[in-house]
Amino acid sequence: MQRKPHIILSSLDLERIEALLEKQTAPFPGREALEAELDRADVFDPKDMPPNVVTMNSTVRFTLLETGKTNTLTLVYPKEMDGSGDKVSVFAPVGIALLGLGVGDEFQMPSPTGQVTVRVDAIDFQPENAGELHR
What we know:
Blueprint: E1 8-10, H1 11-23, H2 31-40, E2 42-44, E3 59-64, E4 69-76, E5 87-89, H3 93-98, E6 106-111, E7 114-125
């Protein structure tokens, strides 16, 4: 099994995600994976977040290595999903995989066709880096 990359979360993101999980009564497929990610993360104050880390509301460019397909998505809370196709919920497998990763990190995740490897190529926007510490 591939070793999971180191992840970093802002304390604000952690608090908000934990609050959502407490309110979420219906099970969802990635709940245990998300909780495991939260448990293993290093937590930083929002003002101390490195600019190359995927945080909530970050816009991320990544590649699925098996296919070479690149995507750009914004990692959002479930209520911000609007069907536009350019957002991914932190409750979705891709969102769980991206949360807390740094540029250059790779992570295996399940897909309908088996395991796929995601590589973070760039962070086009990160709220903390833009000075939005309490968004």
